[in-house]
Amino acid sequence: MSWLSVSPTSHFSLANIPFGVVSTAADTSPRPAIAIGDYALDLRVFAAGGGFAGSADIKKHVAVFSAPTLNEFAALGRSFHRAVRGYLRAVLAADTKHPELLRDNEQLRKAALVPRAEVQNHLPMAVGDYTDFYAGKNHAYNVGVLFRGRDNALQPNYLHLPVAYHGRASSVVVSGTPIRRPWGQILKDAKAEPKVPVLATAEKLDLELEMGMFICRENKMGSPVPVDEADDYVFGYVLLNDWSARDLQLWETVPLGPFTAKNLGTSISAWVVLADALKDAKGPGIPNDTPLLPYLQEKSKDNVVGIELEVDLITANGDKTTISKTNSKHLLWSWPQMIAHHSISGCNLRPGDLFGSGTISGEDSTSRGCILEQTQGGKIALKLQGGEERTFLQDGDTVVIRGWAGKEGALVGFGEVEGTIQPALPLF
Amino acid sequence: MSWLSVSPTSHFSLANIPFGVVSTAADTSPRPAIAIGDYALDLRVFAAGGGFAGSADIKKHVAVFSAPTLNEFAALGRSFHRAVRGYLRAVLAADTKHPELLRDNEQLRKAALVPRAEVQNHLPMAVGDYTDFYAGKNHAYNVGVLFRGRDNALQPNYLHLPVAYHGRASSVVVSGTPIRRPWGQILKDAKAEPKVPVLATAEKLDLELEMGMFICRENKMGSPVPVDEADDYVFGYVLLNDWSARDLQLWETVPLGPFTAKNLGTSISAWVVLADALKDAKGPGIPNDTPLLPYLQEKSKDNVVGIELEVDLITANGDKTTISKTNSKHLLWSWPQMIAHHSISGCNLRPGDLFGSGTISGEDSTSRGCILEQTQGGKIALKLQGGEERTFLQDGDTVVIRGWAGKEGALVGFGEVEGTIQPALPLF
Fold first, then answer.
1. Interface of B with A in 165-204 (CB under 8 A)
2. Nearest by CB to A185, which of B128, B194, B293?
3. Which whole-number Å values give the CA distances from A226 to A158, A175, B245, in the listed order?
4. CB-count exposure of residue B178 (10 Å: 0-12, 13-18, 19+)
């Protein structure tokens, strides 16, 4: 328990202490903060006010709390994150041994603890490379059935390696950023010959429910990361929505994969939940009977982080429908396995690199992670509260993804990642 | 002509003035420089010594010449690059009107003009996103024939849009960086069922001869760049070798494209040749009879930059064979068309983004841009000087790509991009 009043349903309990980057009307420069209950604790102000006086080790590095992103903090490594999180939990605890640092320091409390409703969140990390995996086996299977039928739904490599591709880093945006309906090349009639595309606005705009993970440690180019050391490279996690224009994707995707269909924007939640905060949420993922090559064999079989996930679709007139409920345990590969595979050919990772899990779907129709799956390619409309229907996203639709682990009173949550579809602009 | 002695065969004539980032034994901090003949002109020293005294406009921005990359310089835009290049040409010209700035200023000349043999080159730009196109139609066709036969060599979208995928930015390295033979998953017998890969070192390591282009201007997310304005986003060009492990690539590439097979390293030449320096090298690319959608229609049909290109393979014992001669006019799409397509769905570009052209092959067997094509998938060995043969690259092999435009005495060249294959390390 904290001496601050924290609602038992808050995602940002004392068990969490997620990190983000904020600014305020009074000071518009982005700087690191943590979320606690309904507050953000401004770490730049906290550090300047002597908040870290109780730890010589942390004090040495307080410059990282004046940076405009979390990259420098992340690069200091897992043991440093652990020390800072532990320190801040101790300062905020009801039985804190250092009440003079914040609880009883009215001046610093008023300056550093800002209601979250009054802060603006920024992208927490400067994203180096963004890699999107495809580890949601149920999603991969469902989409495979749609495009290739049941017998060839999964490609031959799928159970042997964590399939992935490079995404676009520049268009990763923080929750709340509007998403513009894109223009692009679309093949309206897939059966006509010759195949001639048109230039049009996407009609099949979709969400993708994913988890994101930020890297905090560098490996040397040419040096793969052993899978059982890979957890040391995990800074923390976010919710991720990889917006996808299915009609653009279908036409452009051969032979090198998706490109303009995904470049339009990728949204992440504002607060990075540290790896340590989710240690208790680990368990088995989707079983895989395929014998794995040694570099993917983990000592622990309980290495997949399980987050409860929900997706709301809110129409322009405010009607809200929860269109999916699932859990991130529905992944075939753990984050350490993804890191091991990413680096097996020598690729160097850097603090700030973002991994996406791939779309996460459960086993039944209420737990699908994208509309393409839910509507079986647009064939069966989703029925929404208020009577509207959807086969894909319409202008003005807002998608909200929530995620959390743990129990009331000690929730370790992400808050949400939210984005609203804006109508396409006229072209030139 | 310059008052400096510049060999008529130098790639770095007064007509060029390419920009790079260098350090020296005496000062190991990376800083911007230009190449002129056998010298690098250290722009940080030049600026500090009053070298830009002749231009108030440039003097305002000299801080960019103390940065460790060219990104800040690039972000100042085409007209600023033009002003700086023009100014430096005037200062270096035999008939310079300001001999006191450098020619007759012995102290500054000795401090700022460093023999290139004594400088270390660094990556010229901090690479934001790296996008690799596939605009070498002859290459795409030849590879398509190998894998799908003549009738389906090019995919239906190929003539309608510049096919591209996202590459890995972190493993882009400057010329001279060794490349480690990678480990990865390989399907040794493609016909056996079930398909079971092994973990092994790549046996089919290849080069890819490409041009690279750096972006200097940002567009807002959601706002496509009109094709006839896109040249304003081009900072300059480099030679690029997109090292590729074909055996890793074949197994992993469905359905999302190449990943570990390309992550092992991408080499670029050290000096960025500015867009203005290659204006006269533009001409028609590969003809395309396909009616293009409006956003890809350029006013000028002579918009493809033509660079003479040569590839040398040097064995460990020093035998050198020129294995390919071609020209970058063998591209189906111009750089402005690639920019227009990249941004059509709203993707934001940023200064420092790197585009690769895709592998460039001419029309005959002496002009192929990768070994996969030259050996028809490893079937016909390349015969090298000294009697050795190659179906793919061996440990100790060095690949050197050279490129230039213009005539002796006024060459606009890139120097070279070079890399040597190091043997694989034991795994863990």
1. 165-171, 173, 180, 182-185, 187, 194-199, 202
2. B293
3. 21, 33, 21
4. middle
Distance (Å, whole) CA B187 – CA B197 = 4
- In the beta sheet, which residues pair with residue A121? A22
Rounded Cα distance between B22 and B28, Å, is 8
Domain limits, chain B: 19-122, 130-179+211-243+267-419
- CATH architecture of the domain covering A19-122: Roll (2.30)
Average the pLDDT over B345-374 and give the result: 97
B427, A295: Cβ pair inside 8 Å?
A: yes
Q: Which of A187, A244, A164 has its CA nearest to residue B161? A: A187
CATH class of B130-179+211-243+267-419: alpha beta
Structure tokens at B218: 């940002």
Q: Give bridge partners of residue B421 from the DSSP assignment.
A: B179
- Asked whether the beta carbons of B21 and B32 are under 8 A apart, the reply is yes
Q: Please state which CATH number belongs to domain A130-422.
A: 3.90.850.10
pLDDT digits (tens, 9 = 90+) for B147-187: 899 999 999 999 999 999 999 999 999 999 999 999 999 99
- Segment B284-331, tens digit of pLDDT: 999 999 999 999 999 998 999 999 999 999 999 999 999 999 999 999
% of chain B surpassing 70 pLDDT: 100
Instruction: Report CA Rg, chain B.
Output: 22
Q: Report the distance separating Cα A326 and Cα A369, nearest Å.
A: 8
Other CB atoms within 10 Å distance of the CB of residue A371: 26
3-state SS class at A421: strand
Average pLDDT, chain A: 97
Q: Give the residue numbers of B annotated as catalytic, written as ranges.
A: 139
ipTM of predicted complex: 0.97
Q: Which two tokens stand for residue A52?
A: 């870290």
- Give the pair of three-digit tokens for residue A241: 């929505």
pLDDT single digits (tens) B373-388: 999 999 999 999 999 9
